């Protein structure tokens, strides 16, 4: 058996809705960046699933295709020794002159495939249509995508049109290149259910194979799905496909943590958004991992079933997890390890594919509306790809290279907290005893406690220290703690936080915020240990007319700001040291922050006074912590601005907190900042923005979260 190959692929969906087309290649910026091909080569990819999409090449007139982009990119892949796996339709319905329910879809795709093969006769691997079953469901059964039908007959027509389109495409391609291989992908999971829904689960588990079964010519009168499809008047089409099949040379399995499903008739156990039905029975449709114990067989089970059913080589053609960075690492490593294990059992798995190389946009809305961006192997938030920790992992997997310490811990899908709706007892998974921890300095502070909570939730092994065990003003204490715990990184969540008191005690503030912080950063750099330190918007003087970015010059107005600026300057050239500038913390878990002060004051029926003319960027602590952890895992260094996405005055921030928590906003008294009588000068305009990455969450979401937790806390207090 040949060596297991590493493939890759940028998310390349071009899907159509009533609002028009959404092109992931343009959304990620890959369309404009020639240098991305060098990144493919640096990852060590032997092949790339690459788009030569019908909608992009011939959007208006099939007789006048535009090959300019494809010519350049395919030549670049060839020059770098990377094999393209050509994709022609990816979750699409074709150009505007056709659609999945059009009788001209299949012959039209066949003609286009012939044009592509004539231009690139050297391409051997092809996926004419990605995930035809998923696309038919989303376009013609659920109505999410064009042509937005919601009936089973339309679903089967869309399915057969895609199968006929694949057959026509491969026929045209093989007239030019007889050795061309069909690599046919689809999402593959398994459905389980409560007893009253056993029939629906059985149907789902038959339907999941239908695309491959059709291409292999297996859907004859003996097939259990024949009568159902024939009942929609499609029997002649089934016979034509069975008489002239197009068996895949490789089965491409796409499996996500949401692929295995559980159907439950007991709707009251589950939230309304999970409720659905089949016209005969109502049921909740849940990710099986969230409800079944023991867990479903997952990707390993899907691959074994596919191998037993078809006996042709398999490839894992999408590996992606839209989650925090350490969970992305764990999923990728687990899939690679499963592939290696199954190959040892005799299952012919030829490749594993690092998917969504540049992340994806809008899958949280199923591509029906603008949505969130999920980073992939590279983060393209700024338009320039930044390698995440996934890049190093994927490069190293084929060579059994050491993995990031956080990648060796169990993923959420392996931990007890995966069960949102527990059905049975479950065993506790412990952290591996030899995993290097994350060391968090600052056991009692807002940030230290927030990082400890986040690490516990994300399954990151960690140690939290107080001043009694790690004193930043004592070099021997720092060295002893680092040598004892041998962490992979250190978070310095300590610090002098009393801005006004620092005016009368600047030396003491400097010792903690600068001297001590510099000492631990230097000790970490000397040991090649990552280090995260925190700075502030108070390093700026507020004289600018726009939000400050990382490269702007500092000019602090007060003692606290000077201590942070001194720390930044000393850490600037230290390898592996990440400095996060942030501002205006608020959190439901800490009683000493602005938002809590607003609520407490208004709860007493008193007015709350806040500066109307001082602008800040409020930052929700849980979002800050998650963003900082991802960057630390990625090995990011230098100065980063990690703050919310909106610049507002302190008074407007207070009004939004008040409104969200149900208080009268007229109780917020906006005044000039210089009338507050604070000893430390503040910059009037201290808004932060980033030229290096995304904001640390949105202000609206943070306030909503804060208000929800505040209501829950008030309810608990009332009940007590």
From TrEMBL:
Cofactor note: Binds 1 Mg(2+) ion per monomer.
Cofactor dependency: Mg(2+)
UniProt entry tagged with the keyword ATP-binding: no
Domain called RmlD-like substrate binding: residue spans: 438-696
Enzyme Commission numbers on file: 1.1.1.133
Gene3D superfamilies in alphabetical order: Glycosidases, NAD(P)-binding Rossmann-like Domain, UDP-galactose 4-epimerase, domain 1
Reactions catalysed according to its record: dTDP-beta-L-rhamnose + NADP(+) = dTDP-4-dehydro-beta-L-rhamnose + NADPH + H(+)
SUPFAM superfamilies cross-referenced by the UniProt entry: (Trans)glycosidases (SSF51445), NAD(P)-binding Rossmann-fold domains (SSF51735)
Listed pathway(s): Carbohydrate biosynthesis; dTDP-L-rhamnose biosynthesis
Alphabetical UniProt keywords: NADP, Oxidoreductase
UniProt cross-references to PANTHER family, sorted A to Z: DTDP-4-DEHYDRORHAMNOSE REDUCTASE, METHIONINE ADENOSYLTRANSFERASE 2 SUBUNIT BETA
Protein family (similarity comment): Belongs to the dTDP-4-dehydrorhamnose reductase family.
Summary of the function given for this chain in its UniProt record: Catalyzes the reduction of dTDP-6-deoxy-L-lyxo-4-hexulose to yield dTDP-L-rhamnose.
Name of the protein in its database record: dTDP-4-dehydrorhamnose reductase
Organism name: Sphingomonas qilianensis
Taxonomic placement: Bacteria, Pseudomonadati, Pseudomonadota, Alphaproteobacteria, Sphingomonadales
């Amino acid at each position: 058996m040949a060596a297991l190959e590493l493939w890759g692929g940028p998310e390349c969906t071009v899907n159509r809705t009533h609002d028009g087309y959404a092109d992931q290649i343009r959304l990620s910026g890959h369309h404009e960046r020639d240098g991305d091909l060098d990144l493919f080569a640096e990852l060590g990819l032997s092949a790339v699933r690459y788009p030569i999409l019908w909608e992009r090449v011939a959007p208006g007139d099939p007789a006048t295709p535009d090959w300019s982009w494809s010519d350049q990119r395919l030549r670049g892949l060839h020059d770098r020794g990377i094999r393209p796996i050509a994709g022609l339709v990816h979750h699409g319905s074709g150009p505007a002159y056709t659609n999945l329910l059009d009788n001209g879809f299949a012959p039209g795709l066949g003609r286009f495939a012939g044009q592509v093969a004539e231009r690139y006769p050297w391409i051997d691997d092809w996926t004419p249509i990605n995930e035809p079953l998923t696309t038919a469901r989303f376009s013609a059964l659920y109505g999410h995508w064009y042509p937005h039908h919601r009936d089973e007959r339309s679903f089967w027509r869309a399915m057969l049109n895609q199968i006929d389109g694949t057959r026509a495409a491969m026929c045209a391609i093989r007239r030019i290149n007889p050795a061309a291989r069909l690599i046919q992908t689809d999402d593959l999971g398994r459905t389980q259910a409560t007893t009253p829904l056993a029939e629906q689960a059985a149907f789902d588990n038959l339907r999941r194979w239908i695309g491959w079964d059709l291409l292999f010519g297996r859907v004859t009168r003996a097939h259990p799905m024949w009568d159902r499809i024939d009942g929609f008047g499609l029997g002649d089409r089934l016979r034509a496909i069975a008489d002239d099949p197009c068996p895949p040379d490789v089965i491409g399995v796409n499996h996500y943590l949401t692929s295995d499903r559980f159907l439950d008739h007991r709707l009251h156990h589950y939230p309304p958004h999970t409720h659905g039905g089949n016209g005969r029975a109502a049921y909740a449709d849940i990710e099986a991992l969230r409800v079944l114990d023991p867990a479903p067989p997952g990707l390993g089970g899907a691959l074994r079933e596919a191998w037993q059913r078809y006996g042709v080589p398999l490839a894992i053609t999408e590996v992606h997890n839209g989650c925090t960075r350490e969970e992305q690492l764990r999923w990728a490593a687990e899939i690679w390890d499963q592939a290696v294990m199954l190959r040892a059992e005799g299952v012919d798995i030829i490749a594993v594919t690092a998917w969504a190389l540049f992340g994806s946009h809008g899958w949280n809305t199923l591509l029906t509306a603008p949505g969130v961006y999920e980073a992939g192997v590279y983060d393209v938030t700024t338009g320039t790809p930044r390698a995440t920790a996934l890049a190093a992992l994927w490069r190293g997997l084929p060579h059994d290279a050491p993995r990031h310490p956080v990648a060796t811990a169990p993923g959420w899908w392996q931990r007890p907290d995966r069960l949102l709706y527990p059905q049975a007892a479950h065993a506790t998974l412990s952290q591996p005893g030899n995993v290097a921890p994350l060391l968090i300095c600052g056991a009692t502070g807002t940030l230290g406690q927030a990082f400890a909570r986040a690490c516990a939730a994300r399954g990151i092994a960690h140690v939290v220290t107080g001043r009694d065990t790690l004193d930043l003003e004592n070099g021997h204490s720092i060295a002893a703690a680092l040598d004892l715990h041998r962490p992979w990184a250190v978070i310095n969540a300590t610090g002098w936080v009393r801005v006004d008191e620092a005016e009368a005690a600047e030396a003491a503030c400097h010792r903690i915020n600068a001297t001590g912080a510099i000492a631990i950063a230097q000790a970490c750099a000397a040991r090649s240990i990552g280090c995260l330190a925190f700075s502030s918007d108070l390093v700026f003087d507020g004289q600018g007319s726009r939000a400050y970015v990382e490269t702007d010059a500092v000019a602090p107005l007060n003692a606290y700001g000077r201590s942070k600026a001194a720390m930044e300057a000393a850490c600037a050239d230290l390898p592996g040291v990440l400095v996060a500038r942030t501002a205006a913390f608020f959190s439901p878990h800490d009683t000493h922050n602005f938002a809590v002060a607003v609520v407490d004051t208004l709860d007493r029926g008193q007015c709350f006074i806040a500066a109307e003319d001082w602008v800040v960027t409020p930052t929700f602590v849980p979002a800050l912590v998650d963003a900082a952890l991802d960057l630390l895992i990625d090995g990011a260094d230098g100065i980063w601005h990690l703050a919310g996405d909106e610049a507002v005055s302190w008074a407007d921030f207070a009004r939004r907190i008040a409104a969200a928590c149900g208080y009268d906003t007229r109780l917020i008294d906006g005044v000039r900042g210089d009338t507050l009588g604070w000893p430390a000068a503040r910059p009037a305009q201290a808004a932060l923005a980033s030229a290096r990455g995304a904001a640390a969450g949105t202000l609206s979401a943070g306030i909503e979260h804060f208000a929800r937790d505040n209501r829950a806390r008030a309810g608990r207090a009332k009940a007590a």
